[in-house]
Design a protein that fits this description.
11 strands; 143 residues; three-stranded antiparallel β-sheet; mainly beta; Coagulation Factor XIII, Chain A, domain 1; six-stranded mixed β-sheet
């Protein structure tokens, strides 16, 4: 009987741990897709942002950018460095607009990029009362 008791305790603990509801992982809440993996320096980059979460995603509205403002990072010396982002003023910029659950948003970036590897960041508040979180595209190449 002594051997069975520890076994039962372990089973009960495992059942309790697995039955507890965990907070949903928001790392996959927003998907960012580009139409290609490789671009030429002056080629348009078509982007689709999809809200895969079960809640509204809120985003900052930037005065100098029509749409959801991106940040572009370039890989230099094995480090992702800020390369481009819109400059927002404090008068016409505000929080927040909404991207509904299950909705998608399409945008076209027209930038003159140098040769190299890039990734695109968008920031959203996915759950109410949470902070902005960064969501990234897969890396793209400019050749």
């Amino acid at each position: 009987m002594k051997k069975i008791c520890p076994f039962i305790v372990v089973i009960i603990v495992v059942l309790l741990l697995t039955s507890c509801e965990k907070e949903k992982d928001s790392t996959n809440a927003i998907q960012i897709r580009t139409d290609k993996v490789t671009y030429s320096p002056n080629q348009k980059i078509i982007i689709e942002i999809i809200n895969c979460s079960d809640s509204i995603a809120l985003y900052f509205v930037c005065s100098s950018y029509q749409g959801i403002p991106p940040n572009i990072y370039k890989l230099e010396n094995n480090t992702w460095n800020g390369y481009w982002g819109p400059i927002c003023d404090g008068f016409s910029s505000f929080c927040c607009r909404e991207l509904q659950s299950g909705a998608s948003y399409k945008d076209t970036l027209i930038l003159e990029l140098e040769e190299g590897s890039y990734k695109i960041e968008y920031q959203f508040i996915v759950r109410p009362s949470h902070q902005y979180e960064s969501f990234f595209s897969d890396p793209i190449k400019v050749k």
